[in-house]
Amino acid sequence: MRPWLIEKISIPTMPRLYLAILLSCLVLSCKTSIQKSEHVQFLYQSADLPKSTGVVTDLANLYTSSQTDEFRTLIQDFEKETSNEIALVTVTNIHPYEDLAIFTTDLANHWGVGKESSNNGLVFCIYPEKRKLWISTGFETEKILTD
């Protein structure tokens, strides 16, 4: 390194140089973490999640077959009008999960509710045994209806 370069860098510019290097490293690390987060990671194995039986999955047997058919028709008609996808699921347990919100979000991602390009899915998860309901929304749907 040439000695005259060191002389030209004044003390006040050294912190700026360090700051610029630090910011560059942060930007690169953020970009890397964003790229990694594009792949969905579930809290548990996807085998722990129930299988979908369509837009209405009544595992807790809360609804009669006519009610299930009515929900199915309403949801499918809504999807035709708006392109937003909705799933209604009732569960008897969420084992090995402890949090219904995380369970519902993992379920939505596993089932692929919502168009991938627009992320416009919505999952209603009803857990009657614990008297709980959670609504998980995709990012586009979240602008209209938040979690």
From TrEMBL:
Entries under Pfam families matching the protein: TPM_phosphatase
Residues of the TPM domain: 56-147
The name this protein goes by in its record: TPM domain-containing protein
Organism this protein belongs to: Gangjinia marincola
Lineage summary: Bacteria, Pseudomonadati, Bacteroidota, Flavobacteriia, Flavobacteriales
